[in-house]
Design a protein that fits this description.
six-stranded mixed sheet; about 45% helix; about 1000 residues; 28 helices; globular; alpha+beta
């Protein structure tokens, strides 16, 4: 019986199935390749538009070249190791049983042998090339290195050798050792597989060809190992594993000499391997290798341990003194601490009337607005629309107002697409219509309104104020810290506006706008639409009619990330801040050149050093978790908030690292001499550099090696007393006059207490550090005082309270506590502002604003009281001026910036009249009695579950507190500070009573 003929020719289906798999693979590769191309080409467009294509090209060409070199070295070594081992395989194996086993393996391998012999080297080459390309910065620094002009104290080599040459040599040596090991293993396995190496009963059989191959490989490895030993001599100066960084006594007298011995020994054993390859005798190289291992153990480990334990340890202070001096000097130089001006500050803790008279200029500009608390106030008073937002933490800067320098709290009104209603959350709205924020809002740092609101210098929509108007500066914010991922802007001339611009008024009405700058790559062509649709994974971008021929796409809009991308060699400060300069809003960003290879310098973890209560609260960004022992604020950058243009200025033009990078990217940095006067006037000393420096200075203010060894004068940065976590207090910007200065300057400040050991801190002030942040206001001219670090050393016997003690006094004072607790009983929260420390009245003055915030979504903090402390005394009043008068015996001798708040201005040093004080005191007492009664009755009602009665008592409590506040305001400054001999030193009668 015959089988019916198949309609499908035999083998046809199998052919189709066989073609399907490679077709799918090809399609997948094409798709992946096009996605890769889309991301690369959009980067090209981004860099070209911004004018930094040279950075993209140079970095990527360097990466490609290094990848290619690494790939070729590894590929060639592994390929030829396998190829040579295969071609010298013996024709006959000495043992039939083993030969049969190997024949089976060889038979299984033979069909794919060519693929394996090429595929394995390619695979290892890809891994090696990728690892090598990540070291592109070391390679570029090596070929463009600059001299430091300073020599290390041990070998007498230029510091640049350690930062730019030694890392490169270490990278190359380590890479070549890896190549030798991988190629050696590949060659041994191939020899074994094809019978050149056999494990037999009588020992290991090795063919002559395999012996030569292994000898050459072993000699190569030993030569590289010897070079590595030799380089380790220099690397000892970068050692951070001991109590102090650098080469110490044991390193200099034991480790460095033994490394030299091991380098010579490795070279001699390598020669023995070459001799063995020639004469075929392996006894000498085997003995040499064993001796090298034993020597490395004894000389590299045991001998230094013996020296350390039995010679150094009993006399450590004497023997290590020389090396501790090196560590102190090199660390201070590496972190810029060698130019700190240190002054003994014999601070008093006694208040006297008129003591602030010499500090009148400082007192007039003491900052009261806490930039970390008043963001909600800015939002409620100046946001106007839900699609706007202000950052969690505002910035402190200074502006010239009425001929005087005014500390200013400033922020930009950024876009918040998440503030749109749910039915407005379309792709078109988020990326085409709502594209930018609007305007700058700024308030005086030293003054507030009578009801506790910020006193604005710049506000409103349209933007008005002393910083300019919509006609004098461009208020639109397309690039900011909270800008959307991307926006599509621009349109042909005459096309209707599509962008939401700003409210026409507070009540209603909106204006429309079209972006007119050059802020991003063109996305009008179909090809570019496809590329960016892939990049942002959005089909709407490809199909929407909101994208036209003139459209630009704005992305990478965060100023910090923008600077990081065009200057990949920089570490960028965690806090960019806006300034109105030259008719634009510009973000000012600080960039650092860093290294971890400076000899004898102490390593510091950037993330640990820059973490404080600001970063833990998410208000600022901590630096990455990397270790450095050299840092310079080498670059100041500006990012235009309208068009995103980035300008890099070589700020520390004497930094050798920056000079080297200027050779790599020659056209990307401008000299600071081209910086405009307006930009120069808003340059500040960077926060993160200051944090790193203050952390190191806690130990390295000590320059005597004996005291440094004992660690008997180490300091710590105090914890922030205004938060519940144990986290460091942030530094504060403020205008103040240090004892050696003739006038106040804008400064960045921090304080010190004795070293904290096991969370046990003695909160007494030991030091006060200030960095001059005034760069001047002349085009291209940097003030000679800018960046000067001044350290006031407070003698321990002065017993000046630290920030924690000052905060504790505020919290525990009966009068203050009673007033604040009464406020907390109502429907309000009491918020302690930042605790400022500044030298004044020949002592240390503490100032803390106190804010009141009612419950509710639309509530915001209002500044209601100011706490001040000096020594053991405190003052507490509605204004700083009144609080200072209380503190200094009724007359401080100077006026604060809020001296005129709620009353007729008075002359400095005069006590305001006390007319009606008796009536005001009586009214205050009656109001407080009412408040206490309401609290008691409310608690009773709450216990009974009578919520209606409880609500009524809460209303009575609120009314009583308003009466108390009114009465307190009428009291003015009639309270007198307690006498200097009073132990509590609480003002009596105090407005808070």
């Amino acid at each position: 019986m015959s089988r019916p003929a198949s309609p499908t020719p035999p083998g046809k289906l199998q052919t189709r199935r066989g073609a399907l798999t490679p077709t799918l693979i090809v399609v997948a590769l094409v798709v992946v390749g096009f996605i890769f191309f889309a991301n690369v080409w959009t980067d090209v467009l981004w860099y070209q538009q911004l004018g930094y294509f040279q950075v993209f090209l140079t970095e990527n060409l360097a990466r490609i070249a290094i990848f290619a070199a690494g790939f070729l070295l590894m590929f060639a070594a592994v390929f030829y190791a396998i190829r040579i081992a295969y071609h010298v395989r013996p024709v006959y194996a000495p043992d039939s049983e083993i030969r049969d086993n190997l024949n089976r393996y060889q038979a299984q391998l033979e069909p794919v042998r060519r693929v394996v012999m090429i595929g394995l080297p390619v695979l290892f080459g890809l891994f090696a090339g990728s690892a090598a390309s990540s070291q592109w910065q070391k390679v570029m620094l090596f070929f463009n290195q600059e001299s430091f002009g300073q020599k290390d104290p041990e070998f007498g080599l230029d510091i640049g050798f350690y930062l730019m040459t030694l890392p490169f040599l270490g990278f190359v040596t380590g890479f070549l050792i890896s190549v030798a090991i991988v190629a050696g293993i590949a060659g041994i396995l191939t020899h074994y597989l094809y019978g050149s190496i056999r494990i037999m009963e009588r020992g290991i059989f090795t063919s002559r060809a395999a012996q030569i191959h292994l000898a050459v490989t072993g000699a190569s490895f030993l030569i590289l190992l010897g070079i590595n030993f030799w380089l380790d001599r220099y690397s000892a100066l970068q050692n951070s594993g001991g109590r102090w960084a650098g080469a110490l006594y044991t390193d200099v007298n034991a480790v460095i000499p033994t490394k030299a011995i091991l380098a010579v020994a490795a070279a001699l054993v390598a020669i023995l391997f070459i001799i063995a390859a020639v004469i075929g005798k392996w006894r000498l190289p085997v003995i040499g290798t064993a001796m090298l291992v034993i020597t490395s153990i004894l000389a590299g480990g045991v001998y230094p341990w013996v020296i350390q334990q039995f010679q150094v340890r009993p006399s450590e202070q004497t023997l290590e003194r020389k090396y501790i001096e090196r560590n102190i000097g090199m660390t201070r130089a590496a972190y810029g601490l060698d130019q700190v001006k240190v002054e003994r500050y014999n601070a008093t803790t006694t208040t006297t009337a008129g003591a602030l008279a010499p500090d009148a200029q400082t007192t007039a500009n003491i900052r009261l607005l806490d930039p970390n608390l008043i963001s909600d106030a800015f939002s409620q008073l100046e946001q106007f629309r839900p699609y706007y937002q202000f950052p969690k933490a505002l910035n402190v800067d200074r502006y010239m107002v009425d001929g005087k320098m005014q500390d200013t709290v400033i922020a930009v009104r950024e876009l918040n697409p998440d503030g749109l209603a749910a039915d407005q959350q379309s792709w078109l709205n988020r990326h085409v219509v709502y594209t930018h924020g609007y305007g700058v809002v700024a308030a005086k740092g030293n003054k507030f309104t009578v009801d506790g609101k910020p006193e604005f210098l710049q506000s409103g929509i349209p933007s008005t104020g002393v910083l300019g108007t919509d006609a004098t500066y461009e208020p639109r914010i397309y690039f900011g810290e909270d800008s959307p991922e991307y926006s599509i802007v621009g349109a042909p001339e005459g096309a209707p506006h599509r962008e939401q611009d700003r409210p026409a008024s507070k009540e209603g009405g909106e204006t429309q706008y079209t972006f007119t700058g050059n802020g991003g790559p063109n996305v009008g062509s179909f090809f570019n639409k496809v590329l960016y649709s892939i990049k942002f994974q959005s089909s709407d971008l490809l199909l929407s009619d909101g994208v036209n021929d003139a459209s630009q796409i704005l992305y990478e809009r965060n100023p910090r990330e923008r600077v990081q991308k065009v200057a990949p060699y920089l570490t960028v400060d965690g806090n960019a801040y806006p300034a109105v300069v030259d008719g634009r809003v510009k973000w000012i960003v600080d960039g650092y050149t860093t290294s971890q290879y400076y000899p004898y310098s102490q390593q510091e973890q950037l993330s640990d050093a820059t973490t404080d209560s600001q970063t833990t609260a998410g208000r600022n960004v901590a630096l990455p978790n990397s270790s450095v022992n050299y840092i310079r604020n080498s670059v100041k950058a500006t990012v235009d908030a309208y068009d995103g243009s980035v300008t890099l200025y070589a700020w520390d033009d004497q930094d050798p690292l920056l000079k080297a990078w200027q050779k790599v990217f020659p056209s990307t940095l401008k000299p600071y001499s081209e910086m405009s006067a307006a930009v120069m006037s808003h340059v500040r000393y960077p926060e993160d550099l200051f944090k790193v420096q203050r952390e190191l200075l806690g130990r390295y203010h000590v320059t005597d090696p004996v005291s440094f060894y004992k660690n008997d004068d180490a300091w710590s940065v105090p914890n922030d007393p205004t938060v519940s976590q144990e986290v460091k207090q942030p530094p504060f910007y403020m205008s103040l006059q240090m004892p050696d200065q003739k006038a106040p300057a804008f400064q960045l400040t921090s304080s010190y207490i004795p070293q904290v050991v096991n969370n046990n801190a003695r909160n007494v002030l030991y030091g006060f550090l200030a960095a001059d942040s005034d760069a001047g206001s002349k085009k291209g001219v940097k003030s000679e005082n800018y960046g000067q670090l001044r350290l006031l050393q407070v003698p321990p016997e002065a017993q000046v309270p630290g920030p924690g003690q000052a905060q504790n006094k505020f919290n525990s004072d009966p009068a203050v506590s009673q007033a604040l607790n009464l406020l907390r009983q109502g429907a309000s929260d009491v918020l302690n502002g930042n605790l400022l420390t500044l030298p004044a009245a020949r002592g240390m003055l503490y100032i803390q604003p106190v804010y009141l915030k009612s419950t509710g979504e639309t509530s915001y903090p209002t500044l209601q009281r100011v706490l001040v402390a000096f020594g053991d005394k405190i003052g507490f009043a509605p204004t700083l001026d009144e609080a200072l008068n209380q503190l200094f015996g009724g007359r401080s001798g100077a006026q604060a910036g809020d001296a005129t708040n709620g009353k007729t201005p008075t002359s400095p040093g005069k006590t305001p009249p006390s007319t009606g004080s008796a009536d005001a005191k009586a009214a205050l007492k009656a109001a407080l009695d009412e408040a206490n009664a309401a609290i008691k009755a409310g608690q009773e009602a709450l216990a009974k579950g009578d919520f209606a009665a409880y609500g009524e008592q809460q209303k009575k409590l609120s009314d009583a507190l308003k009466k108390a506040l009114d009465a307190e305001g009428r009291l003015g400054s009639t309270g007198t500070a307690s006498s200097p001999t009073s132990p509590s030193a609480t003002p009596t009668p105090s407005p808070s009573s």
